[in-house]
Amino acid sequence: MKKLILISALLIFACEQKIEHYISSGNDKAQEKDYNGAIADYTRAIELDPKKPYYYYHRGKSKNNLKDYNGAISDYTKAIELTKAIELVKPIPSATISLRTKFYRYRGNSKLELKDYEGAMADFTRAIELDPNDDYAYKIRGDAKNSLEDYKGAITDYTKAIEINPNYDYAYLIRGDAKNSLEDYKGAIADYTKAIEISPNDDYAYKIRARSKHEIKDYKGAIKDYTKLIEISPSYYKNYYYRALIKHEIKDYKGAIADYTKSIELNPNDDAHYFNASLRRYRTPKIRKDYRDAYKNRARSKHEIKDYNGACEDLKKPKGPELAYRDYCSNGSNDAPTFPY
Q: Which pLDDT score is estimated for 10?
């Protein structure tokens, strides 16, 4: 009898060692972004012990990283079910509650990727019920509401996340975005400013604050933010391009030409000088949407300072249709042609 017990104990120990090896190996592979290899290891661990919730949780994360969102949801659901089953047998320690909160959060994230916003919100709400101080759960539920264009509801959740974690810079950023969507530009600027105070080199915060400042006609403030962006990323051509748009609007045509020129120098062959479609999300009607690219916009600024030959040359640049410049350029340098756009 003792021998059988000893053999059983050794077999259990050997099995546990194998499981530990597979989980450790899976974690290492996941860290190295070998998600298929990680999934294979986690699956072996599950085959040896199918009752451990966090094995499914880890496998679900790897599936999510491979964009197998349905597979990830299935694993997170299994982890939740197993945790509930354990809870029926014995009290759940706080560490396990924290882990179950993660299961709901991660499953909600996968549902978000599938645009199942209602299902995602249900999971985030359950996570909040389990841990009312989970700032991330409030933040991500706010994201789901934002996707449903419930901007006021999103702002409420982002505000709660900030109350829990006053240094949550990302929550300030996305609350600012929601305020932008409600055309509360001053409120958005205040949030972006707070995010910048927490993370002074956050280029997104400067960029979107500049657009909000543009909305309230704080052109100098917008230019100042784009200038800061250029300090942070001096080789990123779009920052010069957007600053040029505003300089043109305030009739600083020479300044605009200099910025368009720098934008073209940094990225001369990219027709993505086009007006960024994402600006439409933030409703910036004063930056004309028919400003198609840096050459055309530079031509417009040259036209304003009566450099008609220079404007003509820019209109002939790549992507400019012949009809757009033919009549303009045929007028000669002494006349004042009508700008074609």
A: 44
pTM confidence score: 0.78
Domains along the sequence of the chain with CATH: 1-131 (1.25.40.10)
263: left (phi over 0), alpha (psi -120 to 50) or beta: alpha
What does the block give as tokens for 71?
A: 């597979």
> What is the per-residue burial (b if ≥16 Cβ within 10 Å, else e) of 226-243?
bebbbeeeeeebbbbbbb
Nearest to 268 by CA among 249, 243, 241: 241
Residue 39 near residue 68 (C-beta atoms within 8 A): no
Pinpoint the alpha helices (H) of the chain.
Answer: 2-31, 35-48, 53-65, 69-89, 94-113, 117-130, 135-147, 151-164, 169-181, 185-198, 203-215, 219-232, 237-249, 253-266, 294-304, 308-315, 322-329
The type of residue at 210 is A
Q: How far apart are CA 75 and CA 50, in angstroms?
A: 12
Nearest-angstrom CA–CA distance, 245 and 237: 13
* C-alpha span between 175 and 257 (Å, rounded): 35
Q: What is the pLDDT of residues 61-94, one digit of tens each?
A: 999 999 999 999 999 999 999 987 665 445 555 5
Q: How far is CA 314 from the centre of its chain?
A: 35
CB 216 within 8 A of CB 186: yes
Which of helix, strand or coil describes residue 155?
Answer: helix
Where is pLDDT greater, at 153 or 289? 153
